Amino acid sequence: MRITGILLGMGIMATNVIAESPVVIAHRGASGYLPEHTLEAYATAYAMGADYIEPDVVRTKDGHFICLHDIHLDATTNVETAFPDRAREDGRYYAADFSLAEINTLRAEERLNNRFPKGHSSFEVPTFREMIELVQGLNESTGNRIGIYPELKQPSWHAKEGLPMEEAFVAILKEYGYMDRDSLIYIQCFEAEPLQKLRDELGCRAPRIFLMGAGKLSDEKLHEIARYAEGIGPSKQMIESDPGLVERAHQNGLRVHPYTFRVDQVPSKYPDVEAELRTFFRVYRVDGVFTDFVDVAKRVRDEAEN
Ligand code: G3P
Ligand code: CA
User: Fold this and answer.
1) 35 C-alpha to center of ligand 1: Å?
2) Considering only the top CATH level, what class is 23-71+126-305?
């Protein structure tokens, strides 16, 4: 009911096809307005006209994929009060230590200050399946073609915990029709090996994005990345410090989707996020942007295209 209300209130955008113009990726949903990785945040991002919606995914103790940015539950749920005795020695509460039934009893909460008010919500932690079913259901009911952009979070850590990600993840992709080169999906990861495995061992042809946080990428490195990914997801700073990166990535056949554009976290060199976005669209010529504020990025993207 809440989701329906959001969609009716905001109005579904007109036909929204995957464009050749830069794509707007809803980072953790419409996380600038609602607690990240909730169905409400995903539905709002959809209604705002995102091209792709991002769930970060981790596994529960019983192997389910849930939408959560961290391997920990404590930054965005009430796990500490609900399960006070379940922290590890480091004081953190790991999703991998909880069953889905237990996680279903938690309340998802806003991570950041000065966004959605904390303590005034009853959001839940969705499963990856629920996220997919929401987006595919909306695609069917609206006639739009919006994609998903899942990030496998720390696959090597999960493997050490006895919860390897790749095969179980691909089983879900198969079930929901995201295995082909032209499927409405990008699969992202900070680790190269899982991206290689998806294609080479598990037969998934869907486009992959290799994420990076820092450092300079040589032409040799870009050439190597192009063997296991169709694009890169660098931090914005990597492009700011190496503006030729986008062109060099393009020369290697790689798309470039930098992260993360936020109204409330703008680098001091820009007066506002609109100016920052304009620079990335018009000057750096990126192929897409991750943003917590889909409505703003979409407006700037559309203006830049006209
Ligand atoms: O996936 C792109 C961007 O989301 C990576 O950063 O930490 O927000 O997942 P993070
Ligand atoms: Ca992410």
Assistant:
1) 15
2) alpha beta
